[in-house]
Design brief:
The protein is mainly beta and 92 residues long. Helices cover 4% and strands 45% of the residues. It is built from one helix and eight strands. A four-stranded mixed sheet has the order 2-1-7-6, with no helix packed on it. The chain has a four-stranded antiparallel sheet with strand order 3-4-5-8, with no helix packed on it. The longest helix is centred in the first third of the chain and has 4 residues. It starts with a helix and ends with a strand. InterPro entries: PRC_barrel-like_sf, Spore_YlmC/YmxH. This is Sporulation protein, YlmC/YmxH family.
């Protein structure tokens, strides 16, 4: 699988049908051998996220490669029912 095969595809959660983001807005966690370990999506949350680049309003969603069920022509289907790792950088 090449990065270009993933670029621009919408990521959809099989568990609840939620749109999680686009691969173009993501980073990849890659092992030393070059295998993709996870897709890391960064999204803005809250009202101020719409207007600025405030790091405090960013959430991170880590999608382990094992959670990916299907890579289609337009979307990537993932199952994040019990594996969701949402991290707010500034949470207490």
């Amino acid at each position: 699988m090449l990065l270009s095969d993933l670029a621009g595809k919408e990521i959809i959660n099989l568990f609840d049908g939620a749109k999680l983001g686009l691969v173009g807005d993501a980073d990849l966690a890659i092992s030393a051998s070059g295998a993709i370990e996870a897709i890391i999506l960064t999204s803005r949350s809250g009202f101020s996220g719409l207007w600025g680049n405030n790091e405090r309003d960013r959430d991170i969603l880590v999608i382990p490669w094992e959670a990916i069920k299907k890579v289609g022509s337009e979307v990537i289907i993932v199952d994040m029912s019990s594996r969701t790792e949402r991290i707010n950088k500034y949470s207490v």
